[in-house]
Amino acid sequence: xxxxxxxxxxxxxxxxxxxxxxxxxxxxxxxxxxxxxxxxxxxxxxxxxxxxxxxxxxxxxxxxxxxxxxxxxxxxxxxxxxxxxxxxxxxxxxxxxxxxxxxxxxxxxxxxxxxxxxxxxxxxxxxxxxxxxxxxxxxxxxxxxxxxxxxxxxxxxxxxxxxxxxxxxxxxxxxxxxxxxxxxxxxxxxxxxxxxxxxxxxxxxxxxxxxxxxxxxxxxxxxxxxxxxxxxxxxxxxxxxxxxxxxxxxxxxxxxxxxxxxxxxxxxxxxxxxxxxxxxxxxxxxxxxxxxxxxxxxxxxxxxxxxxxxxxxxxxxxxxxxxxxxxxxxxxxxxxxxxxxxxxxxxxxxxxxxxxxxxxxxxxxxxxxxxxxxxxxxxxxxxxxxxxxxxxxxxxxxxxxxxxxxxxxxxxxxxxxxxxxxxxxxxxxxxxxxxxxxxxxxxxxxxxxxxxxxxxxxx
Length: 459
Ligand code: SAH
Ligand code: SF4
Ligand code: F3S
Fold this sequence. Notes:
Layout: H1 2-17, E1 24-29, H2 33-48, E2 52-53, E3 62-67, H3 72-84, H4 88-91, E4 96-101, H5 109-116, E5 122-124, H6 132-142, E6 146-148, E7 169-173, E8 175-176, H7 187-191, E9 195-196, H8 199-211, E10 216-220, H9 237-245, E11 252-256, H10 265-273, E12 280-282, H11 290-295, H12 302-315, E13 320-327, H13 334-347, E14 351-356, H14 373-396, E15 402-410, E16 418-422, E17 427-430, E18 440-448, E19 453-458
Parallel strand pairs: 1-2, 1-3, 3-4, 4-5, 5-6, 7-10, 10-11, 12-13, 13-14, 17-19
Antiparallel strand pairs: 8-9, 15-16, 15-18, 16-17, 18-19
Helix pairs in contact: 1-6, 9-10, 10-12, 13-14
The chain binds S-adenosyl-L-homocysteine, iron/sulfur cluster (SF4) and FE3-S4 cluster (F3S).
Residues 70-71, 184-185, 187, 222-223, 257, 259, 284, 286, 324, 326, 355, 357-358, 360 line the site of S-adenosyl-L-homocysteine.
């Protein structure tokens, strides 16, 4: 409660301080949906502090860069982009540049920024999102650089203002943090311990979104299946989902991500019984080799994973299954990799997000003996080639079928077409105009490629 008052107090103070100046702010986001959801709150707080929200950093008086730390490449990109904003300060000396998110929540990062990036005015960790108005206010007032690292603060800030990117699609965080410590992953170190939002808060947010016309809601958490553990059986993820489905209205609900060790048959049964839940399951496998899964600390084996996939398909034959795979984890042999390719052929995924293993300082796997880059890249190329082959086959099978899709807007790859997504999150291109955006329509699939489906609208 006190926290919320603090946020409101500083948003008001900023508004008064900058009254009449016509200031704008821009939020630049890297990383996963969790970061996108956080950025919408950052934009919400800035908007309520009197800033116009703009998309172009060059027009902004405050730039916030929300960063990701999951792979080295993500960090390099965020740092180089932020470096590019330095010259904007020459034209606008009052410009404030702030960096938040997972990259700056690592132990060593604040020091690095203090020393090497003097044009960054303030830094705040993932647990300190709601401190932004106060930090920004103090940054104007004291003209000193401010560093606010994570310190294990587990409070969940409720009721922060939000500026959403889309009118018809929304993220709803149901939990924060992660307790799993997969040996390759930095997330538990930068997002803190797992904590769930109260179900009544989540239900109220979803109700409000549906009432405002939102058509698709994605529930977010690093491992949604362990939602509600701290509530002692009062409300687990399956219960939460069924309660969301009781809300009246024409909407679809999705969720991500599910850890296979915690994905329950109860959850699959709830999905099968509720047409409001999208027929899509993102179930990151990471590797098809039991030896690798153990080294990754994943707590399931190939057989258990496949049994889960079989159960899903038995209950929902049309379900789309997608996954994440890491290629080139330390000590991965040709045989381990062959197990992954074999598993891909067995499951026939609808989409795979594949990543070359990137060592993250502070995680156990970074201390293991690493594979040469050339081996990792070569394996990745083979994985991609196989997935293209499997997807071409899979997409081909859709031709002639009618699917319900949500239209997203004009296609980015083909401006003459509208782009839509199936419940399984596949892209479908169709003829039509902007008036279809944000609507559900039925489409008959006429053509396929490994990357998209083409279709015609039905009445
Ligand atoms: N909580 C989610 C994953 C979040 S990170 C889950 O458990 O599924 C998203 C994906 O990034 C992971 O599934 C993994 O495939 C990949 N990833 C995480 N750390 C990585 C690393 N160090 N190198 C390469 N890929 C990594
Ligand atoms: Fe990372 Fe594993 Fe947690 Fe996912 S479950 S965020 S991969 S530690
Ligand atoms: Fe990246 Fe943080 Fe998400 S490390 S993947 S933005 S939780």
